[in-house]
């Protein structure tokens, strides 16, 4: 049945008929309730995701702080300068020190004793640890 447009005064009857037609066409939606016993941990949850993100950030900051503490600790490195005979020396460096920085410190320590080191840069030096050249 088609609804027609009319400008009649009998609007109440038409409205009642139209409401009945609409109710017949559109079924009444039933309210679906959620089951509280179902495990929904696999579904997205903004609050849980935010807690996880904050926990990750906290753990990352904690790990970086621990790494900074470790890098700033001092350690003793025993090395040997070889010019035909071995000259053992020891030096304290930070754990975060690079090989290049270590070689620069070693050059500064050795240049007073060995004049041939004054003319070279630390880039020209190598560090040998047992059978590995670094």
Q: Taking strands numbered 1, 2, ... along the chain, how are they ordered across the largest sheet?
A: 1-2
What percentage of the residues does DSSP assign to strands (E)? Answer: 15-25%
So what's the overall shape? rod-shaped
For the largest beta-sheet, the strand count, sense and barrel status come to: 2 strands, antiparallel
Q: Could you name the ranges where pLDDT drops below 50 across 5 or more consecutive residues?
A: none
Give me the secondary-structure category: alpha+beta
Mean pLDDT figure = 80
* Helix coverage percent: 25-40%
Sequence of secondary-structure elements: HHEEHEE
Measured between the Cα atoms of the first and last residue, the distance is 91 Å
Number of helical elements: 3
Radius of gyration, rounded? 41 Å
Fold blueprint:
Elements: H1 11-25, H2 46-71, E1 74-82, E2 86-94, H3 99-110, E3 128-129, E4 132-133
Antiparallel strand pairs: 1-2, 3-4
